[in-house]
Structure formats: structure tokens, C-alpha cells
């Protein structure tokens, strides 16, 4: 038997599983270096979102080319997340020091938590949109926020799907599974859920462009 016979057939379940494992390992190694983490996250979604759409994704061509093309936008997106997340935490801590009536304190705390949740939910669309469409960062953020607000139930379901593999990896499965495939599965679940909302809002021209064989060259 030749070596070619040992390779999984392109598009087969085994081939897609191997792609997820390789992408997960690459993401884990790059995440440990911290600085390339945003670009690696974009590369991971570039591999998993097509799989969530029922398409094939070639790891080496997709992962690293997306890192190269989207590193700046991905880095700015992460920095914005960190800044806004820190602002939410600081605001929650500051509220505890203010001499406010209980009902007003409850309202302000709930509003701050709602803003933090909205930020989290918007990210469920921001990363898939980043690798699907060539949107300017400002429009990427705007569209992500609008999608999360316009489809709250679907978005919350996507969040639950994305968290499930991570929670399994942290509390049920062996910790090494996080490095092998859990993060890819989480990304795949987010891509699956977000795509079902994105395709409802995308134009026919935008959807057709996604399947253009020359896209990305």
C-alpha cells in the first residue's frame, strides 16, 4: 500500500477531524506566545467556519494565509475586547463603593452586566464575519452588534454551544483535550450557530462570493 492510501480521503469525516486537531494544536502553540493569539484565532475560525458551512478547508493554505491577512484587524478586535471588558469590571467595582439606594445600585449593576454580555455575544459574530467577509473594522463591529441584538435567542444558543466543549474540557475531560481538539470544537460550534444567522442577513452577491474559487488569492 502506498503512502497515498494511508491518507484520509479529502472531505471525509476523518479528514475533517484531522483538520480540527491540527488547527487546534497550531492555535494552542501560538496562543502560548500571546502576541500571535489574535491572528491565530482568526486562522482557527478561517478553518472551522467553512466546515460549519459544510465546506472543506485546507489547513495550511487557510490558517496561515488568514493569519497574515487579518493579523492587524484581529489584534485590534482583541485589544478592543480587553479594553471594554476591563471597563466593565472597573465599573462594577466602582458601583460597590457608591452610596446609592439598593434599587438604583441593582439597576446600574444589571445595566453594566448587560453591556458586558452584549460585548461577549457580539464576538460570536465578529470572528466568523472577520474570516467570511472583507469588512472594515468599524463596520465589522457594527454588524456584529446588530446581529447579536436582532437575534438574541439564536445568539444565546450559539453561546451555549460554544461554551459546552470548553466546559467539558475544563471540568470533565482530561486537560490535554483542550490542546488536542476542544478549542476547535468550540470554534466549530460558534461558526455553526453564527452562520445560521449571518446567512439570513447576507445578500445573494455576498453569499455567492464566499464560494468563488478565486477568493483569497
Describe the structure.
The chain is 78% helix and 0% strand. The chain has 217 residues and is mainly α. Helix 2 (37-52) crosses helix 7 (176-201). The two termini are 36 Å apart. 31% of the residues are buried.
Task: Break the fold down into its secondary structure elements and pairings.
Layout: H1 13-31, H2 37-52, H3 59-95, H4 102-132, H5 137-150, H6 152-171, H7 176-201, H8 204-210
State the order of secondary-structure elements, H for helix, E for strand.
HHHHHHHH
Query: Whole-Å distance between the termini?
Result: 36 Å
**Beta-strand residue fraction:** under 5%
Number of domains: 1
Return Rg in Å. 19 Å
Which descriptor suits the 3D outline?
globular
Give the rounded overall mean pLDDT.
87
Number of strands: 0
Fraction of residues in helix: over 70%
Total helical segments: 8
Instruction: Summarize the main sheet.
Output: none
Structural class: mainly alpha
- Residue ranges: pLDDT <50 for 5 or more in a row? none
Comma- or semicolon-separated keywords:
single chain; 217 residues; 8 helices
Write a brief caption for the model:
With 217 residues, the chain is mainly alpha-helical.
Amino acid at each position: 500500500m502506498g503512502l497515498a492510501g494511508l491518507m484520509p480521503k479529502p472531505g471525509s469525516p476523518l479528514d475533517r477531524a484531522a483538520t480540527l486537531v491540527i488547527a487546534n494544536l497550531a492555535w494552542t502553540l501560538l496562543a502560548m506566545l500571546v502576541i500571535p493569539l489574535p491572528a491565530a484565532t482568526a486562522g482557527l475560525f478561517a478553518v472551522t467556519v467553512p466546515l460549519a458551512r459544510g465546506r472543506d478547508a485546507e489547513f495550511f493554505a487557510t490558517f496561515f494565509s488568514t493569519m497574515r491577512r487579518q493579523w492587524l484587524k484581529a489584534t485590534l478586535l482583541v485589544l478592543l475586547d480587553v479594553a471594554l471588558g476591563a471597563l466593565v469590571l472597573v465599573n462594577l467595582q466602582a458601583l460597590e463603593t457608591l452610596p446609592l439606594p439598593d434599587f438604583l445600585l441593582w439597576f446600574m449593576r444589571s445595566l453594566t452586566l448587560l453591556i458586558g454580555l452584549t460585548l461577549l455575544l457580539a464576538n460570536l459574530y465578529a470572528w466568523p464575519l472577520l474570516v467570511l467577509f472583507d469588512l472594515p473594522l468599524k463596520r465589522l463591529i457594527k454588524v456584529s452588534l446588530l446581529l447579536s441584538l436582532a437575534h438574541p435567542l439564536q445568539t444565546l444558543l450559539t453561546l451555549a454551544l460554544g461554551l459546552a466543549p470548553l466546559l467539558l474540557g475544563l471540568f470533565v475531560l482530561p486537560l490535554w483535550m483542550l490542546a488536542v481538539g476542544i478549542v476547535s470544537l468550540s470554534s466549530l460550534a460558534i461558526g455553526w450557530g453564527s452562520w445560521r444567522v449571518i446567512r439570513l442577513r447576507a445578500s445573494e452577491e455576498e453569499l455567492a462570493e464566499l464560494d468563488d474559487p478565486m477568493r483569497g488569492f
